[in-house]
Amino acid sequence: MASSARPAVVLVSGGLDSTTTLAMARADGFDCYALTIDYGQRHRRELEAAARIAAALGVSRNLIMPLDLRCFGGSALTADIPVPTSRDPKEMTDIPVTYVPARNTIFLALALAWAETLGAEDIFIGVNALDYSGYPDCRPEYIEAFEHLANLATKAGVEERSRFRVRMPLVALGKADIVRHAVKLGVDFAMTWSCYAPRADGRPCGVCDSCILRAKGFAEAGVQDPLTAAP
Amino acid sequence: MASSARPAVVLVSGGLDSTTTLAMARADGFDCYALTIDYGQRHRRELEAAARIAAALGVSRNLIMPLDLRCFGGSALTADIPVPTSRDPKEMTDIPVTYVPARNTIFLALALAWAETLGAEDIFIGVNALDYSGYPDCRPEYIEAFEHLANLATKAGVEERSRFRVRMPLVALGKADIVRHAVKLGVDFAMTWSCYAPRADGRPCGVCDSCILRAKGFAEAGVQDPLTAAP
After folding, report:
1. Which domain does B54 fall in, by range?
2. H helix or E strand, kind and range, residue A123
């Protein structure tokens, strides 16, 4: 089966969005290569989640690539800047301090390099409506500019052997819709990880932006999140 | 002096082109931050050259960032593919096997991340006329597409605090012109390194594309290359 399917590179962080994106790419019949970047993020649990998810969803390969973005600093996810807590989603209108400079440009560039060597034309990324209210490099116009660049940047693009596409299956979805799609695709939410600042006992903090948005999504979808269920 | 100068990120590989680019950025009064990527290239001498050059040209910082592109493969510079030898420059019309998939997109994305955290708006890269006859990601239209992307991709760009520019001071120059500019700027050619496949005795091979183009440039400029002078 997998060998006749079209290959695709899927950026998998271990969170709810990228897991649902991977499940969608699989459901669309792609032979998936999961790329996870170990960029020195403080929420290391994310990386273990990514590896579990990639294995469970039967990817052809999961590449966990070390790339230490802490040497640049500038983000609450990579430097000594506090992760904000207990914010109302309505307050999350500015670009948050959890923004990592140029992160998606770096991740998409690495995905493009792998896609070119694999002979893949499709790159999947889990950006969505909620992200691009805050992060500049999650907006559709940004992703379209990257797609344009990808076809100028590569041997395969210039020789017209490939036409690279950056697929954003969640782009129009809010968090509750993502939860509903994930349920339909049989995603095991217990394997995913969203929290930026895990508690000492290994459970999600419940108060960072990522926990708050996840909780809101599950509540609106009427689904119980196994990560926050009473033990 | 340096503290009042505008900061710039300069991609420095250790070769003739990026060294001349760095010397030009310094001559233009920029406070330079040199970014060198240790991507697993077989010509490791390049990295030592980059560090020496950055120190000699008085950069504010030289960051040598490990990023192992060998995990993707696909290039004679990172995988077990022979480096071509003894080609006539006229034969070098196709995209060469020394092309590293999406390399400049990855390097520019990293430079952008650093620029954003430094508060720099300028990124220097040593692409030139000779490169873009072969490498897709050295062409001016590619660099312009990256510049457009950079301003969509970043918090600083979106909030209009910065307007990122990718500067290509060598873009219109051939190798002989680059040598002439470097002479005027006092570049010490003995510190640079171009060869893709150094000999066991540590001298340049003289037969890879990079050696051949370098030799042609020095010959046309009427300058003796100290790296190939008789011992």
Report:
1. 2-221
2. strand A122-124
